[in-house]
Amino acid sequence: MSALLLALLLVPLVGAAVCGVMATREHLDRAGKAVGLAFSAVSLVLVAIVWAQFRTGPGVPRFQGRLSVEWIPAFGTRFALGLDGIALTMIALLAVLVPIVLGFGWAEKLPPGRTGAGFTALMLATQGVLVGVFAATDVFLFYVLFEAMLVPMYFLIGRFGGPRRQYAAVKFFLYSFLGGLIMLASVIGLYVASDARLGEGTFDWTALQGMAAQLPLETQIWLFLGFFAAFAIKAPLVPLHTWLPDAGAEAPVAGAVILVGLLDKVGVFGFLRYSLPLFPAASRELAPLVLTLAVIGVLYGALLAAAQTDMKRFVAYTSIAHFGYIALGIFAFTSQSIAGASLYMVNHGIATAMLFLAVGLLIRRGGTASMTEYGGVGRAAPLLAGMFLIAGLSTLSLPGTNSFVSEFLVLIGAFSTRPVFTVVATVGIVFAALYVLWVYQRVFTGPLRGAAVVGDGPGAASAATMSGTDDTGDGSWARRTTARFGDLTRGEVAVMAPLVALVLVLGFFPGPVLEVLEPAVSATMAEVGATDPVGPPTPINGVPR
Amino acid sequence: MTAPTFPSIDYAALAPVLVVFGAACLAVLFEAVLPLRGRSRVQLGLTLVAVVAALVAVVARATSGAPAVSTLAEALAVDGPALFLWGTLLALALPSVLLMADRSVEPGGAFVADPVALAEVEAESRVGVGASRGGSRSAGTSGGSAGGGGRGARDAARAEGHTEIYPLLLFALGGMMVFCAADDLLTMFVALEVLSIPLYLLCGLARRRRLMSQESAVKYFLLGAFSSAFFLYGLALLYGYADSVKLSDISLAAAGSLRPDSLLFAGIALVVVGLMFKASVGPFHTWTPDVYQGAPTSVTAFMAACTKVAAFGAILRVFTVAFGSTVWEWRGVLWVVAIISMVVGAVLGLTQTDVKRMIAYSSVAHAGFLLLGAMAITPAGLSATLFYLLAYGFTTVALFGLVSLVRGPEGEATHLSAWAGLAKRAPVAAAAVTFLMLALAGIPLTSGFTAKFAVFSAALADGMTPLVIVALVVSAVAAFFYLRLIVLMYFSEPAADGPTVSVPGPFTTVAITLGVVVTLLLGVVPTAVLGWVEGLSFLT
Predict the structure, then answer these.
(1) What is the pTM of this model?
(2) Name one GO biological process term (chain B) (predicted).
């Protein structure tokens, strides 16, 4: 499995290099996109194999498929990879989403002078680095990739984004970079502490976990705060969130999916993998602080989401609310809430990806992201409206959709240890229903108006020109879009269909994913030294724990 | 009357320095006797051979396991750090020489044919501008801009005449090598002058923008002379205190004596000021932006990389060997200096509109980071600083090489606005600049990150946590102006009459490639170099 894991890391990077070279030749543009898609498909197959080989159940090692190669002995750092359930689900989600967004981006209109192959290259580079971020079991390697993943995303936003892309790209980079640098202080601090305590400096996660947990509380708190700064910016928790709406709104839709759906997950993933196990005492000590921020995020994100008129900003703010739930689940320290939070990370990725893509399809037709420009889209494009509704219902955690399971697990798990925070956060569910349905109502129902009537905005016109090169073979689509606001093409349905399937399947059968997550969750619980308050947790959804 | 005793000289240990100085003297002779035609080729060949030979000698010495010696009546210490610094200096001099020798980017080379003929050059270029550009920009408004196009056959023939840069460079290089190996303050002072005076001259030799170049030379000279005076005064005070100029004697005297401390601390302060000036550590950095901007870019590359190495080499040696016993007395002051340097470099760097000035302020910020490692006075601090110097030097040389490629009608287009949309015109050059900018910002997988990591962990281990936090915040601030250049190059549309990116000649290509490759290698597989610097220690 180690070889597969390494391949998972390298395949996208090689693909990125190939596409990057092809992007410099105009006539290879289309071929570059196809090659990129092929590479992402290979990644998907690899993930499926890894998933099948991944052992679950009690007694599995903390990390599977471990791989460790000497890297910089002077720093005591190794190129060490390994998977636990949480990392695997994140990598799997990534592998599922990248082909989907590449498929979505196939017909996307790009700013002048930008090539689809270049876009594909940056996307694959992001994927490769992100796989490394999730799979790293060496803190130094994690930090290196944590910072390195900013670079392709920075170019993705800055080169392919909306009108204010420069501002958004720089803001995104600087926020994350600053957080990363503060984390670097803690990373170095850990190294220095390991040098003092273990006799030699190391970055090995397992060694550090054993060492750091023994550090005095005050030291732990300082180190925790360094990591927390980076993860809270990345997640983002509320006072540090302002870069996300800008980046989400200005990034190209496909980039926004990866940015909000996965790149930001590194923040909450970091809480689970680094903050809790490395600094258990500090985590318990500072949990109320984090929980407060989380709950504020739930409510504040929901309120601001309801107030948006730009649909991409709207999706970004809903994500801030969801990240609040995830942080709540993590810092409530029960098996259920942490399992729920881990599952939530997957489900939020799916729901947000779908919502972003639905918004992207709408923008492609109407040429604007402003809600006020639309009305009654459901009449002109019922399939699109249906897709948006499914995504929206998943976002508001309707029972039967994937997000319900995770949100329920988080709330029921958190209630047993943190009733007050949980009750307040539950109010967010009501807000979620409000903001999703309100947007649906304004944009998709009622009489046709605005951009939905003519459908000849810049986006529609470009969609028409792009469809000439569309490989769906649906030539009639071009005429229909110019004639009126067209519904989804077969190609677009094909892009969205896997997400619809995931929303429903994970809504009814979350078991397989929970099974993969379970060992990592109980390991994290053990590492943070928390026990469930009321005996063994009851089975949820028929999943034996 | 007793016969004079001559000090023993370890020629083997001194071989690299002797090669460089020997070549420098030979180059002066060549300058006098060789005919003009073809002289530059001979001089270049001589310089390259000398640098490579010296480099080979350094590597041979370092790998032979010869013990550290203090030779020439204990004036020069050839120890591990000295050999590493020599190697770094020579390795950095190589691309710098190549940049200086390039004539394909700027026809006839970047140096003025005849330094005294200012008026003539100006007049000539004005005619050239008038003829070819319709007087689009008069020489007067830019304070002595030289135009393009006005290079007649006469000028081309005279272009051979700037060959004195090679002996000047060799002398400066030799001075730097002695500077960072000097085991007593007097030798150090002499070396300081030997390295400085050729640099003052080199700064004033730019073919374009003559007045700015000469202004930078005068500024550098005047401020440099002051700093030398500071250093000399400090030296005198320390001699008064310790009865010796030897570094180890000063340390001994300071460790256990009842002598008045005021002499010692005044002396330390003045000597350190002199050293900080050369290393362009803030607040002694004020010459840096002007000189970096005014000097010919290849000279700037040489100065930015090699002077920094030499100055920090000397700082490391002085701190460790001479002032190590009093570290707790002076370190508090240096905390302030380091903070000022980092903050000034990063904050003023934000406001710059000229690429060369921006890199100059970045170098001030980097000097602050380097000072963190140098202050640690631990083996980890020493090795981290040495590594940082090597990494930073190569990044900077390559960066200035790239700066010299971006050209408008009036020579190098260093104004930031001229770089807009560069990625479209020259994707490879823009990618290289981006990579080097990320290295300066300290993004992982570049040498900049490895170096910063090493320095910061050494500083943290030595109890300088607040400084490290300041340094990290400053890194984030500085990242903004590195990013701004990337934003300009990639995300902005190119201006209609923007500059072009010259196709570099073989020399410049080699220099830039070398810098970029080293920056990448030291970021991804730094093990070999880290292994080399790890066990080094000064001879005390």
Answers:
(1) 0.87
(2) ATP synthesis coupled electron transport
At A110, the amino acid letter reads L
A72: left (phi over 0), alpha (psi -120 to 50) or beta: beta
The pLDDT of residue A454 is: 55
Domain membership of residue B3 (yes or no) is no
**Residue B203 and residue A543: Cα distance in Å, rounded?**
76
Determine, yes or no, domain membership for A541. Answer: no
B445 interface with A at CB cutoff 8 Å: yes
Q: How many other CB atoms sit within 10 Å of the CB of residue A363?
A: 25
Q: Is residue B432 part of a domain?
A: yes
The whole-angstrom distance between A200's CA and the closest CA on chain B is 13
User: Is the pLDDT confidence value at A28 over 90?
Assistant: no
From chain B, pick out residues whose CB is under 8 angstroms from the CB of A185: 456, 460, 465, 468-469, 472
Contact A482, A461 (CB under 8 A): yes
The structural domain count of chain A equals: 1
The proportion of chain B whose per-residue pLDDT surpasses 90, expressed as a percent, equals 55
Domain that holds residue A151: 2-528
B4 in a domain, yes or no? no
* Residues 6+ away with beta carbon under 8 Å from A504: A400, A401, A402
Give the mean pLDDT of chain B.
86
Give domain status of residue A539, yes or no.
no
Q: Is A93 within 8 Å of A350 (Cβ atoms)?
A: yes
Domain count, chain B: 1
- How close, in Å, is residue A22 to chain B by CA atoms? 13
- What pLDDT was estimated at residue B147? 40
In a domain, B6, yes or no: no
Interface predicted TM-score (ipTM): 0.81
Residue A299: inside a domain: yes
* Best to test chain B binding among A9, A69, A144 (most B CBs inside 10 Å): A144
Domain that residue B224 falls in: 11-534
